[in-house]
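Could you join me in thinking about how sequence relates to backbone shape in a protein? Label the sequence line and the structure token line clearly, so we can match residues to local backbone shapes. Once you have written the record down, we can walk along the chain together.
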Amino acid sequence: MNADERTIHVIGGGLAGAEAAWAAARAGVEVVIHEMRPTRMTDAHAGDGLAELVCSNSLRSDDHLGNAVGLLHKEMRRAGSLVMEAAEATRLPAGGALAVDREAFSRFITERIGENPLITVRREEIRDLPPREWRQVIIASGPLTSRPLADAIARLTGEEGLSFFDAMAPIIHADSIDMDICWRQSRYDKGGADYINCPMDKRQYEDFVNALLAGEKVDFRDWEKNTPYFDGCLPVEVMAARGMETLRHGPMKPRGLTNAHKPDEKPHAVVQLRQDNRLGTLYNMVGFQTKLTYSEQKRIFRTIPGLERARFARLGGLHRNTFLNSPKLLDEQLRLKAAPRLRFAGQITGVEGYVESAACGLMAGIAAAAEILGRPFTPPPPTSAHGALIHHVTGGHLALGGAKSFQPMNVNFGLFPPIETPTTGEDGKRLKGKRKTLARRRALCLRALDDFERWLAGRKG
């Protein structure tokens, strides 16, 4: 083999690209990461670090026995994930969630990649299909794939693909939050007092919703106007337009919270702020992705009790996300059927979320390394979180309505094969309602971990 036949080329240095490169290097294969920043920046990124978090700083729930993304965390840790290593090293208090200091997180991954003798980082934009001499390529260019590369992929596949808007929430300086009005508490006191809560009474809430609806929005360019939103990351004003009570049953739900200043008065709605850096000087507005103009964000969000004098470190915004029609285009090893030397990983495949993107990159890196080393690769079983996710994007969706209806998907228990659960609990009482749901989730998680461990052991054997 010549050098290019022994090397894996990874296009994109986001979470998926960094994880793919790390996984391949751990297998002993040389890797080149091609990252276009800072030569060419995107509308969403702020710097040139690898694995930059551009939206939330949360990797969501870390509960590996009751939550699908927490289960994915656990599996990734067992498989040697760099992203999970970085998350542990830069972790911030966030109740039962795994939140990180976003700058320290990116810096950790950038340094670890830079120290690895098998990984080279080239700061350059790949504007066309990779050269034919690159025998193993992982395209992990993400939802912000540059237009020239996206056009080249479209020409190769004959597919225009699908796209949607993703939105970023504002970030606020902690010392500008009025703690005489707000209080610290995690919902249902799960974890520490990790969130800052801003209470609203009924009138304040209704006035706020009306202001969101009336506020001036960002004008879309012509080519953006027919791009649908992803339901998992809707702008707050789009949720508000679905009905007066929508936000109160979504990101502004008051359940599980008690106002420390007025414990006898139940808030009608609550805006939660989550720590965004290790110093605790920045907090982001949970669930407040927005397409409001900057001036309207400042005006409307300062009507929230406790945020009257808020100083914004970053205001919210929108960026366009692009992804493949993966069930039609990719095989179970994430290879493009029309050109198997090209693998895809991360959000461009239609997985949604930081963790899911990294997990997809992890599997792509392992698969590409196995092919170079002449070893067989079988994806993890669909009973595992990794396997369920890959199965969804590479064909499982076909049974759910066809490839034409393919949409980005977070990992969730609906992607897992059914399992029989006990009908009674340890107390001998019949399981029903929430207890039955929790028992089912636990059973799914235990099966997933057992099957994933067997898959890992089989790869080592």
About this structure: Residues 398-403 have pLDDT under 50 and may be disordered. The longest helix spans residues 433-460.
